[in-house]
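[recover] target loaded
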């Protein structure tokens, strides 16, 4: 697959699809991790005298009220600070103003186009990869660089649409992500998988794909209780994915001994931070209790498997991470993998957010910037944003 280093960028108009889908509160950027992740590719293009034209989505645009809160202008301002260089922001996604601004660019100029999902107001042209829109955006440049790993699992006009009409490559961020994730294609052994999160349904594809490769799959989070129920344990009012009890039974039977479940959990009688909790063995959960985190014995069990692993991947928190009380299992295991230099890949989404909050994100082997994209990679699915460039 062509990377940015394979392209002639000198004096070219270079379109870069970035992932600036940053968390916003009252028009202000809460976390600029995704912006800083795009800087190496942007700077490389500037160093090669390119005219840099940036595309990104932000949030979802379903109705006119969504436009203002998903305006990309704050991103342009943050980029200016980070690059110490003027960034021209065009508040339109097409038309004369955009075309003139691009035609008047000089080498090393930067321009950010308005949120690509503004085009979703008119028949979801971005999200449904409208061929005319992809062709139009491609006509604005000479080279296309896809560096938005977080959207490569979607066929949108701003990635697949542009790539199908223009000489294309991947940027440094996608290259880094793929190099890390490729280590899981034929992993060194022992290979350990840690899975958390709420529902089994969200992870069926991942479990089915990785159970064939992994030596152990360690399961925590809300999804663990469906597995425990399938094993005949009383789980009280804990989260249950009833439709997938049979799946849990079958996968544990077919891959006997591979799936490791919690041995103790933090239980309470109310889904809140107010109630006190107790740590109980999984054999002692009562009908009116719910488990909201893994317990210390389970953390120890998980640590024992991780300490011998050559490589591991972790997707999803192991407790209700929104509540301070129930962060402990996740944070304790994160601390263990960092302190013991375990080669672990955090598989995007909530677990990376958790690691970021607790200060571990930059200390692990790799923390993926993709949510759904990383999950689909772990499921072994085809990623449309990459296929077009291949």
């Amino acid at each position: 697959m062509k990377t940015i280093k394979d392209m002639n960028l000198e004096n070219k108009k270079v379109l870069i699809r970035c992932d600036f889908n940053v968390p916003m509160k009252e028009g202000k950027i809460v976390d600029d991790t995704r912006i800083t992740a795009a800087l190496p590719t942007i700077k490389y293009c500037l160093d090669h005298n390119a005219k840099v034209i940036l595309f990104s989505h932000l949030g979802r645009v379903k109705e006119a009220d969504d436009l203002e809160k998903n305006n990309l202008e704050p991103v342009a301002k943050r980029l200016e600070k980070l690059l110490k260089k003027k960034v021209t922001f065009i508040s339109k996604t097409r038309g004369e103003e955009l075309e003139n601004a691009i035609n008047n660019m000089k080498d090393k100029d930067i321009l950010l186009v308005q949120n690509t999902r503004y085009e979703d107001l008119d028949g979801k042209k971005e999200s449904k990869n409208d061929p005319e829109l992809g062709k139009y955006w491609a006509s604005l440049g000479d080279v296309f660089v896809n560096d938005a790993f977080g959207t490569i699992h979607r066929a949108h006009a701003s990635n697949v649409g542009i790539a199908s009409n223009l000489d294309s490559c991947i940027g440094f961020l996608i290259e880094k992500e793929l190099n890390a994730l490729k280590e899981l294609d034929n992993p060194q052994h022992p290979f350990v998988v840690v899975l958390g999160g709420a529902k089994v349904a969200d992870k069926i594809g991942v479990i089915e794909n990785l159970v064939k490769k992994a030596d152990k799959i360690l399961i925590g989070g809300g999804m663990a209780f469906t597995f425990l129920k399938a094993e005949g344990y009383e789980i009280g009012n804990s989260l249950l994915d009833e439709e997938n009890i049979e799946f849990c039974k079958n996968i544990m039977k077919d891959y006997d001994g591979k799936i490791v479940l919690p041995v103790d959990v933090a239980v309470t009688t109310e889904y809140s931070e107010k109630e006190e909790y107790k740590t109980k063995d999984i054999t002692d959960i009562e009908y009116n209790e719910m488990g909201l985190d893994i317990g210390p014995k389970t953390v120890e069990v998980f640590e024992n498997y991780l300490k011998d692993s050559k490589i591991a991947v972790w997707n999803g928190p192991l407790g209700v991470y929104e509540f301070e009380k129930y962060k402990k299992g996740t944070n304790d295991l994160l601390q263990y993998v960092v302190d013991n230099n375990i080669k672990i890949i955090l598989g995007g989404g909530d677990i990376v957010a958790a690691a970021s909050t607790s200060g571990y994100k930059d200390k692990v082997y790799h923390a993926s910037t993709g949510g759904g994209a990383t999950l689909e990679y772990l499921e072994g699915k085809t990623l449309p944003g990459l296929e077009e460039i291949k």
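[recover] notes: Residues 185-379 form a domain with the Rossmann fold fold (CATH 3.40.50.1260).
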